[in-house]
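1st attempt posting a full record on here, be nice pls
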Amino acid sequence: MKLKTKKTLLKQFISRMLLLLVLISVVSGAIQGYVLYNKINEDTMQQASMIAGTIEHGITETDLASKNIEHQIDLKLELHVRRIVDRLQARSHQNISTEQLFQLRDEMETAGITIIAPQGDDFVNVKSTDAKDVGFSWKTVGRAQIMNSYAAIMKDEVLQDPTVSYTGKGIFTLFAAQAVVHSDKPAFFKYTYYHPPGTDYIISTSIEASEVYNFIQKVGTDTWIASVLEENPYAKEIAVLDPRVFANPSLEKDIYPPLKQVVYGEYKFRNDQDLALLQTGEIQEEHKYIQKINGQSLYKMFLPLNDGKVIYIALDYKKLSAPLKNFSLLLIVSGFVSLIALFMFAASFFNKIYKDIQKIMVQIKQLELGDLTAKSTVSDGGELGELSASTNKMTDTLNQLLTDTHDQATKAQRLSVLLETEANQSVEKVFTISMETTSKARESVEEIFYFIDLIEGHLKNQEYTAMVKEILDRLDHMRQLARDRTNNTTEITITLSDLFKSLHNQSSDLSDISKSLLQHLAKFKLGN
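the predicted structure (as tokens):
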């Protein structure tokens, strides 16, 4: 048979407290982990949104300023081309000489002048200040957009094309574009195309437009991005991307000015998940997720702009979450230490209570064994102290009660022994006296009977008269009375004998009861 292991109150308390400690630690850790995760995501998103806002603001400001600068150049370029046309006064391109073009180029301080004329379904450079451009066929470029633009202004139409910076009746100007130069510093030029009304040609002139480039280099989006990367320790990579080019890479070659996948900044931490998102061609809502690239944990955000582009931001997620994780770890450790301290304090406090309970339990076990002198000393001033005092008082009361009972039982036994002895002696005395009395009574009765018999015999010899009859009746009555008195004396003697025997037996029983009671009381340890 398997014995059931006894589990003390102290063990139960410690096991339950440990279980509660573990439970609190697990629940607290889970809650703090959940809050920490949300807080890290919130702070990361806030950092990314703040950076995105800064870049978006920089793009807006730069775009607005560069457009204003470029518009001023557009107006200047339009003024130049109209002055050139006024100076030429030619209805046909055949009436324009190359020398005139050189002269006007130098006079107007332009970069170059080219005359373009339609030839069938093509447009050809017929004259130019750059000999290499003469005879160039625009049809060979393979861009229908250019051919359509030339055809539109030949009809003096207003060109509807978002790829040009300026348009008017019979005129359009391209955005500043980088020219191929043999120097470290890039050169930017703007080209305008104008069809003088009533003529058979298009005149194109260009001027250097590095002002826009210089402005962008100083305060442009790339500058904003570089500044943010330098000032923000969490930013790893920032760029402005064009999803349309990711979806259709031919846009880098087939249109003018060409589009780029990475408009501003750098985009090196790319992977399949990013490309799958960008190759949709249009991102209409914010996307954010965490990736591990080259051993680095990155938080990426793609924020759409109004013009179809997106701001891409990659943050160092590990560095960003480190302070919060450290703080959370500190909270968890301090909380766990606090719980341990609380557990130690509670265990110490309960251990003191348990010791006091043990004192009372030891006292109760001694009482179970009959030791009515057992006492417990608990001086905590609380309920256990009151219980100990009450138990001690109960012990004293029970001790006194049993002591008194023992004394009374002892006295009862002593008296019962005396009573038994006296009763035994009394029985003997009564028996002796009754025997003597009975003997004497019998002798007296016999003498009386003898005397009555003599008188009765004498009277029977006499004449039977009424007197004799009365005397004889009286003699019979006296004989019967003597007999009754003798019988009564015998009965009284027997009754007394029985009474004393009963008293003797009862005193003996009382003695046995007292003895048994004393034997039971002897099992208890009583105080004085």
